Amino acid sequence: MYPFLSVLLLGSTALAATIDLPLRKRAVCGPGIGSCAPGLCCSQAGWCGTSPAHCGGSSCQLEYSDSCDTVIPPPGSSTEDVARDQIGSVPYGVRIRQCTEPKTLALTFDDGPYDYTSEMLDLLDDLDVKATFFVQGSRINRPRFDDESTQWPAVLRRMHDAGHHIASHTWTHRNLNQVDSDIQRSEIIHNEMAFRNVFGWIPTYFRAPFLECSVASGCQGLMNALGYHLIDASIDTKDYENNTPALAQIAKDRFLTGILQDPAEGGGHIVLAHDVHQQTVTNLTEFMVGTSLAHGYRLVTVGECLGDPKENWYRDVDGGSTTPTSATTTTTTSSSGPEPTSTFIISPDQTCGGATGYTCQGSAFGNCCSFYGYCGSSPSYCGTGCDNAFGSCLPQSPGISDTTNGLCGEAFQASCANYGDKKCCSPHGYCGNSATHCGVGCQSLFGECN
User: What ranges does the record list as Low complexity composition bias (predicted)?
Assistant: First the structure.
């Protein structure tokens, strides 16, 4: 056969092979092409538009768009001016990979809330386990979590009311090592604003997307400046790679391998999983709980596994100190215990009260000793239940007052009536809105009851 005939036949074969392939348009934005028109977003595939597929999540190309969700904040003022005192013993701005409390294990779930989060909360209720959720503000297939026209604020409030630890996982899940300092900051601040809109506080715990937050990129410096504990993991289940019934065993095996390795310095494990994957909810989580208990681990939140009081997990958005201006001011509503005096030892570790004998007066953590026995300066510490025998407290007027921290009832003479949507005072003296709070035994003099 003549050579030119072979070339002709090969060309014809190649042409025939492409006849049935769908036609593809060229990308219209992105590297080497250019930007979208104002108001449009450049999708990961290089198309301009305004849909969630174009603008949502971390796939919108920032360099070629002016309207990616990343740069669009939630409603309300910025939280940048919130005071960020670094209190407690847990370090700020450095990677924390494991628990410090012996034989504790913290299950953590990233990227929610999403379609399976409510089911996850049901499961954790059934198992009587508290977990930590690293919440992402806006997803490509889910609107921002503070949008009250959606189910997500209610899901998050249920999560918080159940006693789970809620933390930040950025606004749109950008790799913080691959963006500039402005985007790094907006990823944190925008998520804070959404938390503020839902809860009235911002978290102090944070996990970086893809666990990427280096010193060189400036990310860890930003974490320190904004007052965040940077949480990594000692066990990564890789559940996102194994989200089918056939592959779920791989995630289980990774968990089992990790739990069989003793943590350094006698601490415990922090486990990384995701509540946005069905197999994690229906298959993996119950296995992790059962295996942990069988190996003698105590299942707790990240804050608990690091020995951090719950009062330290969140910051008041106004950031202002509520400590009385006089260092010797005390309330007159309680006669229990002696007045604070210089004979008490100033708290060296944030604990206070009768169990330790430490006073908060003059401590580095704040002058108020909370009902739970920790020093601080916000209304949570200085208001309802504050122990004036071991520090200063906000003045209390006679009669029933509004709770400052969710404690309520006859013992505190505090009402839930103006405590957000948690208007029922439970038999045990806690504000909430569940059947446990509002049903049988609800204290009707101190809030609403069903």
Answer: 319-340
